[in-house]
Amino acid sequence: MDEIYRAIEEKIRLSGYAGAVDGEEIYNDICDQIEDKEEGAYVLMSGRTDGSFFEYTVEVFEDQFNLSSIDLHTADRVFHAHFD
């Protein structure tokens, strides 16, 4: 799992975002949000304590999910990390 967490963090850094991110926290947030979802495509939002927020584009399957992208919205910019 550490490889997945690092990949999330790296993709966000490559988007130009220089702040701190935690791949495990992001992964767990997505898992919590999709727990009772039916199969399908979703856009999920998650606020952060600094006023910024994540926008996840996720496709949910029966036993797994596919993270397509993360947009990190800050006060003055949107950072886009594409995973497909």
Strand order of the largest sheet: 1-2-3-4
Give the total of beta strands.
4
- Rg, rounded, reads 12 Å
What general form does the structure show?
A: globular
Portion in beta strands:
35-45%
Distance between the termini: 18 Å
Overall structural class, as computed from helix and strand content, comes to alpha+beta
- Which spans have pLDDT < 50 for at least 5 consecutive residues? none
Mean of residue pLDDT values: 96
Count of helical segments? 2
- Outline the biggest β-sheet: 4 strands, antiparallel
What level of helicity do the residues show?
25-40%
H/E series: HHEEEE
Quick rundown:
The chain has about 80 residues and is α+β, with helices and mostly antiparallel strands. Helices cover about 30% and strands about 35% of the residues.
Task: Describe this protein's structure.
The protein has 84 residues and is an alpha+beta fold. The chain has helices spanning 2-14, 23-34; strands at residues 40-47, 53-60, 65-73, 78-82. It has two helices and four strands, in the order H-H-E-E-E-E.
